[in-house]
Amino acid sequence: MSNVFNFSAGPSSLPPAVMEVAREEFRDYRGLGVSVMEISHRSSEFMEIAERAEADLRELLNLSDDYYVLFLHGGASLQFSMVPLNLARISDTVDYVDTGYWSTKAISEAKRLTRVNVVATSEDQNYDRVVGFPDWRLSDSARYVHLTSNETIGGVQFREFPDTGHAPLVVDMSSDFLSRPIDTCRFGLIYAGAQKNVGPAGLCIVLIRKDLCGNERGHTPSLLSYGVHARHKSMFNTPPTYNWYLAGLVLAWLKSEGGLVAMETRNRRKAEKLYAAIDKSDLYHSPVQRPYRSMMNVPFTLLETELESRFLAIAERRGLSNLKGHRSVGGMRASLYNAIDEKAVDALIEHMESFEKALR
Ligand SMILES: Cc1ncc(COP(=O)(O)O)c(C=O)c1O
Q1: Among 56, 95, 98, 172, which one carries the catalytic annotation?
Q2: Which residues of the chain fall short of a pLDDT of 70?
């Protein structure tokens, strides 16, 4: 067992119970004598793994049969291109909400493929909030509205989702997928890179409403077509089988832990504790306005930036790892995904308090 509390933003901690099962099954998957990564994706053993993972995901999300579930390569970033390629023509307009680093990435990729209208941006406020829905300047005939539910770097999160009317809502949920219950029927498409709450990097889960599938542009490469992936049950080519297997173990673990309601309760408790510790101190500061603070990624700065390297060095010695903020914003960042135990947050708060006390 590791004594390290890993606050990495992604790839990030996986539940210890999942790692144990993976370790036990690593060389010999349930008596087969070989590893999951050594068998065909078309074998009955892998088909069962794949189907169970999808069934568990559907159950966790209460997802209706109106949606396909796709297990794809290419991370969440490939979706920045697949979404416009499949849902819009070059002359169409699509609406994007700019909430920071990841939505900016999605916008710049979409701009290569279609006409993008940025309906709201908090850039002028240094991305310390989400612009309220009433202030969005939506297009009359957008093919879809895209937003990033949780900005992994900036630590800004949507608490609730707007009704975008005729335009399907498309959401990059990479860093808060499965962290709380969502009303899936309100979305046209959800995508999530696995490496936060679902499994290892490289795998991306896509939920797409069936009527949005199969409308890709004529020249779209097969591997970038949702329709092709849906028709082939995500096995048009060899899927990332081991990642899919690990994601399946995480999904089974989530069910055994009480599902998404239990996750939300736990995640809220962890985040509230940490924000309370930041707010009551004279040393630490949260750059995000309270109503938009993320339950998953908590960035914070120290009043004197020269203290940051000392804070991090002592944290490392205490087994608190990967707290350094993203290179683009600096400061600290604690990621509190599902697999992060409350004990890790308690240990971090203890460190923050003793570090501050020692300065007095
Ligand atoms: C919100 C969000 N979207 C997209 C990505 C890109 O994911 P990937 O590196 O899997 O392409 C990330 C990565 O951290 C992310 O946090």
Answers
A1: 172
A2: 1
- Catalytic residue, chosen from 98, 196, 253, 324, is 196
54, two tokens: 């999808």
DSSP letter (8 states) at residue 200: S
pLDDT at 166: 93
Which run of H or E residues covers position 255?
A: helix 241-256
What is 17-256's CATH number, 3.20.20.370, 3.40.50.300, 2.60.40.420, 3.40.640.10?
3.40.640.10
Strand-pairing partners, residue 302, are 284
Model pLDDT, residue 1:
59
Tell me the two tokens of residue 268.
């809220």
Packed helices 101-111 and 75-87: angle between N→C axes, nearest 10 degrees: 40
Question: What is the model's pLDDT at position 328?
Answer: 84
Percent of the chain with pLDDT over 70: 100
Topology of domain 259-359, CATH: Aspartate Aminotransferase, domain 1 (3.90.1150)
pLDDT number for residue 161: 97
Query: Residue 25's closest CA among 41, 39, 5?
Result: 39
- CA 77 / ligand 1 centre spacing (Å): 6
Q: Give the list of residues 6+ apart from residue 9 with CB closer than 8 angstroms, or none.
A: 152, 153, 175, 196, 297, 322, 326, 333, 335
Residue 236 pairs with which residues in a beta bridge? Answer: none
- Identity of the residue numbered 73: H
Ligand 1 center–CA 76 separation, angstroms? 5
Sequence ranges of the domains in the chain: 17-256, 259-359
- Closest atom of ligand 1 to 77 CA is 11
User: Residue of the nearest CA to atom 1 in ligand 1?
Assistant: 174
pLDDT digits (tens, 9 = 90+) for 159-177: 999 999 999 999 999 999 9
